[in-house]
Amino acid sequence: MKSLNAVTISGREVLPLVEGGKGISISNGESSGAWAATGGVGTFSGVNADSFDDDGHYIEQTYHGKNRRERHEELVDYAVAGGVHQARVAHELAGGEGAIHMNVLWEMAACERILHGVLERAKGLIQGVTCGAGMPYRMAQICANYSVYYYPIVSSARAFQILWKRAYHKFPEWLGGVVYEDPWRAGGHNGLSNVEDPEKPEDPYPRVVDLRKAMRNHGLDKTPIFMAGGVWRVDEWEGWLDNPEVGPIAFQFGTRPLLTVESPISDAWKQRLLTLHEGDIYLNRFSPTGFYSSAVENSFLRELKDRNSRQVAYTTEPVGDHTEAFPFGPRKRPIYLTEHDLAHVNGWIAQGFDEPMKTPDSTLVFVTEEKAGQIRTDQIECMGCLSQCRFSNWKCDDEGTTGKKPDPRSYCIQKTLQTISHSDDIETQLMFAGHNAFRFASDPWYSNGFVPTVGELMERLKTGQ
Q: What is the reported pTM?
């Protein structure tokens, strides 16, 4: 394999090997600090990161506010404190090697406030910020204010063009790189557009070449692109190295760092990764963000698929084929279904799914009484973790609501991601993963349950494997 030449990232000469920034507590200061210590780019999650008290005890993120607005403010405080703590840990462990980046999601609640808070209190500890899940126009100005490089996460040249024309052209000196995240292969939330088919993955090469062409049009010939999503071994991408069509390139690894000694996920999660098969990870659209996301098949996803399948359209008056009255709510007021749908509904009720819940799309989903209670409780206890949430109808603005009905077809993402990241419950919680996670089981390096340190993994990646 061709040698991996150093590239300039965040003003530093580093290996073109980047730790992918993942969600809540899944990449932290320990994992990112260890990665940077090897000469690469470590990335900790700035999404409600864990924080600790003066005695080193973990501070559980519990909420005492009487309403969503108050709980939202608590969440922001937790996020800033956690981000600062993880930045300090990463900086110390890196020992001046590599670079430390923080990953945030533009669609997380109060992203701008959290960025300001962390970057202000962690000056000199963070060299770059990566940001996706939305169109982070204002990220450039925020990062420039703190002399920190910014790295937008995009899935197409078109998305980058929009960002550049609207905002980034004003701050070109702080654009450290562009992360191309493959929308079919990456883990977590994916940037599929409405014109792209989730069932038909496209070759990333021409998409990245198009991105480079767009960047060259703006004088960004030497600005690196991070290839993210679907990267397992560098030797499988050898044709991208020293390739004039691609230009300066680095490779971002999101999935493989999960299975390291320093990875903060539970041992149960690590062992599960070693047993996955191709097809166990797939795209779904249950997320309260409205984005597609990639996760591991388990009872959590199966329940969501089943829940969404028990769905029928209704009208409030007899219209067209909707002629069959169905009693709804405590007062048993009639709504109207088709004869065909009523037969399905009667079958679901006979199976115990006898609690209908209205959605914002004039449909009903049928769940058990217990599940309905859980959904309503989770909606009521919303802490405003997203900029807007279809599950609870929270919106991070003066109104505090999307103006739509809460959607029982989704879930509380903060609750499930906090639970899986701080417990052994990997079956009834959302388990994000990249589509290559099944390769742990077939890669001989991981045979007999071998879990490497970050240093061992980096040495392995340097060889192309």
A: 0.93
